[in-house]
Amino acid sequence: MSVATRLLHSIPVDEQTGAIAVPIYQTSTYVQEAPGVNKGFDYARTGNPTRLALENLVATLEGGHAAYAFASGLAAIDAVVKLLSAGDQIVAIDDIYGGAFRLFEHVYRRLGIDIVYCDTTNAENVAKTITDKTKLIWLESPSNPTLKVSDIAAISAIAKAHNCLLCVDNTFASPILQRPIELGADLVVHSGTKYLGGHSDLIAGIAVAKTEELAKELKFIQNASGGILGPFDCFLTIRGIETLPLRIERTSTSALEVAKFLETRPEVARVYYPGLESHPNHEVAKKQQSGGFGGIIALALTEDTIEAATKLVTSTKYFKLAESLGGAKSLLCHPATMTHKSIPAPTRQASGVADGLVRLSIGLEDAADLIADLAQALDQLAAAKEEHVVTKEGELVVA
Ligand SMILES: *Cc1c(COP(=O)(O)O)cnc(C)c1O
């Protein structure tokens, strides 16, 4: 059975009414026959049927024992970090989502968890960085925003050898292209805000556990800390996931075309896209992803300045300037001043988030229209540069 068929038919039909759409159970509590005698639900922080349908769906897609839905991607990440104790250490990818970096550095470091970062694109770096305190390895693959690809199977073997957990933030690939648990990961997190929701109309997060034991711990944390996803947003996320295979297929095809076009432009010094042969870990991406390389591209401008990047991101018509990604409409952003501004400049630049780096989220528009939009914006950038040179020379003549 194909992923799309399995996905659509693992969403249950409502037993009571036959409703084909999952009902929104907008309730805080459930009437009990006697104390503790109920229909499987007692209080809606602990459990909600709409949320359960979403959680079961994502667990099936990722091949995990169970999944838990949270109010945001960061709340899901937060729940995973709460599996640790003071004195434990996380080894994390250096090119990490800015919000995860902020949570690790400004909340968990204060609470006694140590975090070290390394370039995980070479698995040996991970082995070298691990200490006897390391309890969790944190990967994003592909990473946000420079699309670094790490070998999940190789790093999972290292994690097992050192008795620590491996968690993969699978937001960029989605379970359609990559299933980290099948590659050996213990935990998977998603910002459901992105591809799972898919329409830029909600904030959500999911954490998936491979084993029953980890699932129990995560479930305990979800209930104890309470950062749950509300029933309406669970419904919207399920609805988004129904079209996930189609959207991922379309966006992956368009993104490869856009990435190839960008490689031809002199204004662009480097294109970051795992589907390009020029990507340093293209072979690893091919090995661990299937069905495409996703819809996110990053580009480094030849003129590596905040000014040039600002000019580009304000010159497009279809690509809207906004944080976030994975929606139906194409977006672009400037990580250095937007999504990754919470990372200090030297750390950010060392991990490849240069001043002239621009991130694109390829939407569901026609690829030719998106390419034409980028072409006219790059033309404007080139024209602005020429004008600048003329003015300078003019000034020189006057002087
Ligand atoms: C957006 C994002 C997050 C955070 O998710 P929110 O839903 O915004 O809290 C985490 N990881 C990655 C890779 C992201 O792109």
TrEMBL record:
GO terms for cellular component: cytoplasm. Keywords: Pyridoxal phosphate, Transferase. The modification N6-(pyridoxal phosphate)lysine is found at K194. Its cofactor is pyridoxal 5'-phosphate. One of its GO terms (molecular function) is cystathionine gamma-synthase activity. Pfam families: Cys_Met_Meta_PP. It comes from the Bacteria. The keyword Nuclease does not apply. GO terms for biological process: cysteine biosynthetic process via cystathionine; methionine biosynthetic process; transsulfuration. The keyword Transferase applies. Belongs to the trans-sulfuration enzymes family. This is PLP-dependent transferase. The lineage of its organism: Bacteria, Pseudomonadati, Bacteroidota, Cytophagia, Cytophagales.
